[in-house]
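Slides due. Your pick:
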Amino acid sequence: MRSYKYEIFTSVIEEQIKNKILIKGERLPSVREIKDKYHLSISSVQSGFEYLMMKGLVESISRSGYFVADTRNNIISQPRASLVPVVRNAVFAKNVMLTSARNKPSESSSFNIAAPGDLMIPQKLILRTMQEVIREKGASLLRYYPSNGLPELRKQISVQMAASGCVLKPEELIITDGALQALTIALGAVTEAGDIVAVESPCVFSVLEAVANLGLKVIEIPVHYDHGFDTEYLHKVCAANNVRAVVVTPNFHNPTGIAMSDNTRKELLKTAITYQIPIIENDMYGDLYFSERRPSCIKSLDHSGLVMTYSSFSKTLAPGIRLGWLHTGRFYSRSERARFALGRSVSPIYQELVLKLLQGTGYERHLRSFRKKLSIQAAQLLGALCQYFPEDSYFHNPEGGYSIWGKLPEGTDMNAFFEYCDRNRILFTPGNTFSLTDEYSHHFRIVFADRITPESLTLLENAGTKAKELLCR
């Protein structure tokens, strides 16, 4: 992992601002004071202040020094106060067209693809390890592997998850062809066509796609910026409807980047047990945390077997590595049948590749470096968005993952804004893609999983300038 010496003091300042020990307008120690206190070079201290300024926490006043910035303008009232708990059929052909049209492999960079860009992928590590696997395993890679996955791989995934406090029994794990297949298996194991599923609002498109393909109905549950999933709303929905499953992303929800609070996780599990509703937990972004420790899973609190957790390695390694896993809880037999119906087994070479990476140290080193890059890019984009876009815009500061959730002022002509962005290849994902309602017509998602370049920042400035023009009209 690349080391950033300035973290020794920036982490202290961030924590003090977060806990309101340092307040708006308060002067921070000078560059020389921090240099002497932490035994850093002047360039390291200046880099640290630049990082804090990118995150919008600190501002520089010429000839006066550095001060705590006003972060109050990054507060938005909770949306969806009028969101009615309506059961909806998951039909969204328009969103399918909108999403697929924007995922073109020819794009050199974009803000809409939630997968690591070419320059963020550990290519040497992956290709070197793959060559080792081919030399060691030879022709055995051309045969079928066990339908539920390589036993050694399931054991290694259990070991990896146990480090974050989430105990998964290897015999209850199923290796899948990516996260979407894991979700499809989980839904297929606990629902039938016509059943009602509770999903987050906003909700990542792939979840809505899986629900639609299985002929299920959905009720959208609000996600709040301070604590995540609205469990009180869910409780009311479950009391009035026969909800058969709840699909959530507690760790760095896509598209908002929010981490569900500990109390919310407990309340969600309590509601699930009360109504005997399976929780299908998406942990794809759990390893991409920006804080000191990896958040655990709802599964770590569960003794009922109602929680099914799934993840994949496409978000942490490379999008082309289609290998995921599903921990089935008490639903192993049903999940195994659903898995077998979708194919005989997952690619042997991907299973052996991921197993070898997990057994070594290279994967963990890559994760540490990748998290740091993502954190810095998130800060860089947030700073640019706050600088270039209309003053009353809102951009949520993510705690991990890939995405920033933005909202333009109500007076903005969003059709004209997205038309301009499309013409100029500025690829944000419109907010309505994340819902079957029109609640997010002024929202959009910005992804920072690709390398941020001067050219991409120029595109962002152009989009912000256009948004200001459309607001003035």
Observations:
- The chain has a mean pLDDT of 88.
- The longest strand covers residues 217-224.
- The longest helix spans residues 362-388.
